[in-house]
Amino acid sequence: MVLKFKDNNNITDALDVSSLGSIRFSSLEDPVLGFDEETRQSTGEITKKRAELVFGDKKKISSRVTFPPTAEIETFKWRDPVELVDPEFHLTYIAAQDGNREYYELVIYAEGIKKVITKKGIEATTQIDGNDKQDSKNKNEK
Predict the structure, then answer these.
(1) For 2-141, CATH number?
(2) Domain edges within the chain
(3) pTM for the full model?
(4) Could you read off the pLDDT of 2-39 as tens digits, one per residue?
(5) CA–CA dist 59, 52 (Å, integer)
(6) Among 74, 79, 68, 61, which residue's Cα sits nearest to residue 46?
């Protein structure tokens, strides 16, 4: 899997997605609702879902990710380790105008997210009646 940046209406491959580091769920945002141009009212239909995710291990960066309306993202909790499903990274350049500075905006789209389950070996040593006993067990981190 690679990062994909939009360039002149084409998706181009860039760095490996693992360079982002770990990804954790932060919060669910309000969905984007459809709008009827004729009646100028909301249709009530969800057109996009959005969530705030935190990227990185040491230096953490928070970013909004946009999902299709069918994505199941409501069950995730704060700090759940997740993985993006089919991510697309769209980098937009905004030129300087009227004394404002130029900047880049990164918009992230994904088909969904899935929970990452990590296993850690925990080794505990206890002393019973003068004998050492070691217990090793795998524990799922939730």
Answers:
(1) 2.40.50.390
(2) 2-141
(3) 0.67
(4) 555 555 555 555 556 677 789 999 999 999 999 998 99
(5) 16
(6) 68
The amino acid present at 44, given as its one-letter code, is G
Q: Are 22 and 60 in contact (CB under 8 A)?
A: no
- Strand 88-94 with 103-109, pairing: antiparallel
Residues 6+ apart with CB under 8 A from 21: 55, 56, 57, 58
Q: Which residues contact 5 (CB under 8 A, 6 or more apart)?
A: 11, 12, 14, 89, 90, 91
Indicate the Cα dihedral angle 23, 80, 87, 54, nearest 10°.
Answer: -40
